[in-house]
C-alpha cells in the first residue's frame, strides 16, 4: 500500500475547526475490524467489569486495540500513520485507547483541555449513525484554548439549559453521520457529544499525541495516571508491544519509558474499589 499523506487543505481544516472526516477510508478493512472488535469483547467477557453489555450503561475496555494483533496493526496502516504524522509529526506517540459499547446520549464535553500539546482521537464507528441515532456531533472552533469563544463554551456548555435555554441536542453543532469504514478525527479539546443513540453502539478509538519534550515528561506521566482505574500494569497491552514492528515501536517508546508507575496506582485503585469503573 502506498504512502498516505494529508493535503495542506486538510491540515488547515483540522487546525481551524478541530476535526476532520475521512469517508470510506478504511472500507476495505471494516469487516475484519468488526470481527476483531467483537472477539475482544467476547474474550474479556463484556466490558471492563467482565460482564456482558446489557445496554444500561457504557461498557469500556482500556487498552483496546492492544488486545488484537489485527487492531494493533492499524497503527502500521499507511492511512492511519499518514493522518497521525500529518497532524502530529513523524515522531508522534500512540496513547492508551479504548473500545466501547455506548448507550443512549453522551453530553457535551472535551476529552482534554491541552493548552500547548496536541492530542487527537481517531474514532472508528462500527454501526451506521445519523444525527438522530447517536452520530458524533462537534462544535467547530471549540478546541482553541485561550480563544474567547472556546473558553466561554468550556465554562458554559455543561449548563446549556440554564445559560442558553437549549437542551444538549439543540446546541448549534455539526453532525458527522457515518457508516462503518469512515474515520473521524478530532482534537481532544474539541467539544463533542451524541444524542438519540441506541443501547448497542460500537466504537473504538486510537488516541495519539505529539511527542513530549524532555522538560515536560511529568505531564506525560500525569496523563497516563488515568489508565490505572482500569487495573492495568502497563499503558499498552502485550499484543501491541509484542507484535510491534520497528516503525511502530518508535510510536510506543516514549510511553513505555514513562509508564512504570501505573502498576502501583492500579494496585491502589483495585484495593480502594471492589468493582471496576466501566468508563
Summarize the topology.
Blueprint: H1 8-17, E1 19-22, H2 30-43, E2 59-61, H3 69-72, H4 78-88, E3 93-95, E4 99-102, E5 106-109, E6 119-125, E7 136-138, H5 148-156, H6 160-164, E8 174-176, E9 183-187, E10 192-194, E11 201-209, H7 217-224, H8 238-242, H9 246-249, H10 253-256, H11 262-272
Antiparallel strand pairs: 1-9, 2-4, 3-11, 4-11, 5-10, 6-9, 6-11, 7-8, 7-10
What do these coordinates show?
- There is one protein chain.
- This protein has helices at 8-17, 30-43, 69-72, 78-88, 148-156, 160-164, 217-224, 238-242, 246-249, 253-256, 262-272; strands spanning 19-22, 59-61, 93-95, 99-102, 106-109, 119-125, 136-138, 174-176, 183-187, 192-194, 201-209.
- With 279 residues, it is of the alpha+beta class.
- It has a single domain (8-212), classed as Sandwich (Jelly Rolls).
- Strands 1, 2, 3, 4, 6, 9 and 11 form a seven-stranded antiparallel sheet that branches. It has a four-stranded antiparallel sheet with strand order 5-10-7-8, with no helix packed on it.
- The mean pLDDT is 94.
- Beta-sheet strand percentage? 15-25%
Architecture per CATH nomenclature, i.e. the level-2 architecture: Sandwich
The mean pLDDT is 94
Give the uncertain stretches in residue-range form. Answer: none
CATH-assigned homologous superfamily: q2cbj1_9rhob like domain
Question: Helical percent range?
Answer: 25-40%
* Secondary structure category: alpha+beta
Which properties best describe this structure?
279 residues; alpha+beta; Jelly Rolls; seven-stranded antiparallel sheet; four-stranded antiparallel sheet; 11 helices; 30% helix; 17% strand; globular
Amino acid at each position: 500500500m502506498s504512502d498516505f499523506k494529508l493535503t495542506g487543505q486538510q491540515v488547515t481544516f483540522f487546525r481551524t475547526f478541530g476535526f476532520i472526516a475521512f469517508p470510506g477510508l478504511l472500507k476495505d478493512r471494516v469487516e475484519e475490524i468488526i470481527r476483531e472488535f467483537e472477539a475482544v469483547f467476547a474474550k474479556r467477557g463484556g466490558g471492563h467489569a467482565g460482564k456482558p453489555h446489557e445496554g444500561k450503561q457504557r461498557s469500556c475496555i482500556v487498552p483496546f486495540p492492544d488486545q488484537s494483533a489485527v487492531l494493533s496493526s492499524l497503527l502500521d496502516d499507511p492511512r492511519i500513520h499518514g493522518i497521525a504524522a500529518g497532524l502530529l509529526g513523524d515522531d508522534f506517540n500512540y496513547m492508551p485507547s479504548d473500545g466501547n459499547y455506548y448507550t443512549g446520549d453522551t453530553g457535551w464535553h472535551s476529552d482534554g483541555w491541552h493548552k500547548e500539546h496536541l492530542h487527537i482521537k481517531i474514532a472508528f464507528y462500527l454501526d451506521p449513525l445519523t444525527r438522530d441515532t447517536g452520530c458524533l456531533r462537534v462544535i467547530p472552533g471549540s478546541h482553541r484554548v485561550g480563544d474567547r469563544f472556546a473558553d466561554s463554551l468550556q465554562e458554559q456548555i455543561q449548563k446549556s439549559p440554564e445559560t442558553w435555554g437549549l437542551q444538549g441536542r439543540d446546541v448549534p453543532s455539526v453532525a458527522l453521520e457515518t457508516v462503518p469504514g469512515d474515520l473521524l478525527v478530532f482534537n481532544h479539546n474539541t467539544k463533542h457529544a451524541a444524542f438519540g443513540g441506541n443501547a448497542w453502539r460500537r466504537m473504538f478509538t486510537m488516541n495519539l499525541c505529539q511527542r513530549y519534550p524532555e522538560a515536560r515528561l511529568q505531564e506525560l506521566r500525569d496523563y497516563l495516571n488515568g489508565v490505572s482505574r482500569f487495573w492495568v500494569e502497563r499503558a499498552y497491552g502485550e499484543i501491541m508491544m509484542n507484535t510491534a514492528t520497528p516503525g511502530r515501536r518508535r510510536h510506543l517508546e516514549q510511553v513505555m519509558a514513562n509508564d512504570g508507575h501505573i502498576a502501583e496506582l492500579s494496585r491502589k485503585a483495585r484495593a480502594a474499589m471492589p468493582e471496576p469503573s466501566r468508563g
